[in-house]
Amino acid sequence: GNSVTQMEGPVTLSEEAFLTINCTYTATGYPSLFWYVQYPGEGLQLLLKATKADDKGSNKGFEATYRKETTSFHLEKGSVQVSDSAVYFCALNPARQLTFGSGTQLTVLP
Amino acid sequence: DTEVTQTPKHLVMGMTNKKSLKCEQHMGHRAMYWYKQKAKKPPELMFVYSYEKLSINESVPSRFSPECPNSSLLNLHLHALQPEDSALYLCASSRLPGETQYFGPGTRLLVL
Q1: Could you tell me how far CA A30 lies from the centroid of its own chain?
Q2: How far is CA A41 from CA B21, B58, B70, in A?
Q3: What is the interface size between A and B, counted as CB pairs within 8 Å?
């Protein structure tokens, strides 16, 4: 079946630290891959996406590359800010429905 | 513009009440979705509407009744809910079924 595995949280970093949140997936076919972010008390916002192998999605300093050979879509940011504190969800849509990972809580300390 | 709006933002209801949640988008999207999200969990799909027709019902109890009056509007009618139904209810839309979904801010529901 289709599934997404995210690194366990919570993750706590100091401001300006490098961020990696690991995401691996299992899917049939060629799904699109997504990262959504949920700030406290809010809905989900699309952070970035990639629709085919080797595509790199990027937004607000965040990047993720669709790696078909390792079935991964790791989220990275070179220098996090306090305002990046949120829950991050990796997701895929192999069959017209989104399959989410469990989410990773990120806290950035000043 | 990728805005999905939801009203109300917060809702408190008793187990005998009837209430409705509303979702609206004006992006011309032809697929709309309802999700339920419990604290510290990912969203769970409840219903999918494609071209104003219900296409997926994820075995949701009948006390939740979706309605899609037109291509821009999606309602979720609530009746005789249980305390365990307390959650954040999220609406999303996509240009076509299976394409990128854009979420609204959600309605935080508390059932007493």
Answers
A1: 18
A2: 18, 25, 29
A3: 45
Structure tokens at A73: 């879509």
C-beta atoms of B2 and A46 within 8 A: yes
Q: What is the pLDDT of residues A20-69, one digit of tens each?
A: 999 999 998 889 999 999 999 999 999 999 999 999 999 999 999 999 99
A43/B6 CB distance under 8 A:
yes
Output the six-digit token pair for B101: 């979904």
For chain B, how far is it from start to end, CA to CA, in angstroms? 37
Residues of chain A positioned with their CB less than 8 A from the CB of B92: 44
Coil, strand or helix at B70 = strand
CB contact under 8 A, B98 and A96: yes
Structure tokens at B47: 């219903």
Query: Which residues from B are below 8 Å from A34, CB to CB?
Result: 100
Mean pLDDT score of chain B, rounded to an integer? 95
Which residue(s) pair with A23 in the sheet?
A6
Question: What is the tens place of the pLDDT at every residue in B12-44?
Answer: 999 999 999 999 999 999 999 999 999 989 999
DSSP code string of chain A: --EEEE--S-EEEETT--EEE-EEEE-SS---EEEEEE-TTS-EEEEEEE-STT-EEEETTEEEE-BTTTTB--EEESS--GGG-EEEEEEE-TTSS-EE---EEEEEE-
